Amino acid sequence: MASQAANPNSTSANNNGTATETITAGNLTVKIFVDANPDQAVLDSMKIYYTFFVVAFVLFDVVQRRLKSHFACRAVHADTSCPTAAKSYGIFGWIPAVWRTTDDDLVTHCGLDALCFLRLLRLGRNISMGSMAISCVLIPVYATALNPLTDESTDWITRMAMANMNVALDPNRLWASAAAGVAITFWTMFLLLQEWKVYLVRRHAFLGQNTLQQHTVVVNDLPANLCTPDLLDTYLHALFPHQVQAIH
Fold first, then answer.
1. What are the residue ranges spanned by the domains of the chain?
2. First CA to last CA across the chain, in angstroms?
3. Are residues 24 and 7 in contact, defined by beta-carbon separation less than 8 angstroms?
4. What is the pLDDT of residues 69-113, one digit of tens each?
5. Any stretches that span the bilayer, and where are they (predicted)?
6. What angle do CA 46, 50, 54 make, to 5 degrees?
7. pLDDT digits (tens, 9 = 90+) for 215-228
């Protein structure tokens, strides 16, 4: 019984920047369309998003100096004003002032929730910076890998990716990827541990303040016969004699 051998595969380039790879086996023919120039998509995305970022950033700087009641609402009222919001800045002059704002200033003028939110953003930034530092090591490892299918015409995105490595020819380079995974995991866990320590100290300090918010109780789902301040005051004074200061 004779068997029909598979026809050789073929690849052809198209005018729209894609390549068509035809795989034929017996009576079955499969055509796969592959992006022959993936780095162009990355460059186009960078042009679009960086342009939007620059325009939005400049627009924000212009508008926020003209609508201070919307972008610096704390400066409108003296009792809520803070030194950073009360000052007037020139073009991009607010950036150094915001950069120099300490965590203590944030807690004092904005509260613990604002500090936790901003520290969460810093945590993401620091994790990303660690990833970029590791990428500076991995990219040369990938780009210099032995791969007979890669030549000078191969786009730079492919040459810098893990797919550029040929495991059969050079399996030891996979240790770099494994080490990078371990490194970024330990880096993330270290940053999380530091954040939890800071949060623990800040939270205890916040709860230890002798302010009105530490002695205020919110009561929900009151029955109809206790929905007026006078009735609720009488009821709570009966439960806690001489311990209720005011009811609002």
1. 10-77, 110-208
2. 95
3. yes
4. 777 777 677 677 777 777 777 888 888 888 888 899 888 888 889
5. 48-64, 127-146, 174-193
6. 170
7. 788 888 888 888 88
